[in-house]
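User: Study the chain.
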Amino acid sequence: MSVVHRLTVGWLVDHLSFINQCGYEICDSFACPGGVTLNTSVRSTEDCHGSSTFVATSSSSSGPTHSPEDAIETEGKTAKMRYVFREEFFDISKPHIVAPPEEQLCQGCPEMSLTEIKVCLIFFFPCRIIWIFFFFHCLLILQKRKRKCLFNQGELDALEYHSKVRKLIWEGTLHLVQEGLKSGFLHQRTAELSCRKNNVPVVCGLAELCEMAKQFPAVNEGDHRAVYVLEDETSSPEQDLLSCVAENASNHAKIIVLMGQKYLVPPKSSFLLSDISCLQFFFYKKKYDVIVIDPPWENKSVKRSNRYSHLSSWQIKQIPVPTLAAPNCLVVTWVTNRQKHLHFVKDELYPHWSVKTLAEWHWVKITRAGEFVLPLNSLHKKPYEVLVLGRVQGDVKEALRTSEGVLPIPEHKLIVSTPCTLHSHKPPLTAVLAEFIKPDVECLELFARNLQPGWTSWGNEVLKFQHIDYFTLLQKE
């Protein structure tokens, strides 16, 4: 279970445990954990069966090397191999920036008004040298931007929002962290620096592949295959995966090879690898009861770094959520801490989709020792992100029928977890949303970079974090 503790204020979540409970276990007549795998079906234990035939397939993914002598056919014997997500990607033992003692989570939460925040913000720095550096840095900003005040309107709006949610986040996180420390899930002061390296040189050309797919000839709806069912073969034609929803309907996971790279696909999951301009869900003809959206928000740092493509507000509004949503669909949107984006979602985007805003939740990022990864009052980045929850509005009778037996969405909840060090690897929402939706509903994630059982995922890098190099192969049984 990914939820470690549940309190009134929210949930303490184990993201790593959720991934590893998806069941990435190979069970076959023969399986070689190196660069050669013969039937690449990944199955749970109860689906294992013996067989003696196989066809060798090469892969470019890195892993333990094995000599040819290891590849010996074993008739009637079942080999089991289990993949787990690499633990070092969640090995955050110390904060990225250590907060001064008065700002640390274990201390009390002093009341701060917006005026006090504006006047005293720079005094949270722990030493005079940093204060002096910050002072001159502000002078340079003033000269460069020719400002009349230290903060622009967007920064002032962010400070005002922070002043409203700060106490809720502080106190709620403290209660969840205390429970985590009591149970032993969190370990205070065992936050030694790890010497393990977590930078895996994964080659991901999925976005480029989707860009190339724009040149594919248009497909008519009449002769279009809506679903491509993943079988036990190792390689899948790129055009098949780029032209329709790929579905693993079995009770076991599978490995697919795309552009020479191996990707793990969990059981009972579906995905569409495509650019937003080639969104083919209309052919899928499904309606979703939950839609989670993590848009690539447009901002200056993204433009400068050129790490990934971004969408303007106008482009995000074109996402066909009303077409994809079932009656009373729950819509959850991840929002950065820019107030411009938050206001856009609540005041423009949701009304455009006929979605009524119900609540704002926060994902709070902590270390394994229970500390904020960044000081709560940090000027640059905050240790939390916002989720805006709403429901599609439509027929009142249908909405009442579909909402029977589920709890109403509460106004404020916290999802507290140790974040993944991989950029934009969001925590799973399956367990935290369970009490607010009916069981066995259709769930969709847009702009996803990983897969999860029971969900359909879409994005131009939807398989990115499913790459086999992000996983560790446990001992073969």
The chain is about 25% helix and 20% strand. The mean pLDDT is 76. The two ends are 25 Å apart (CA to CA).
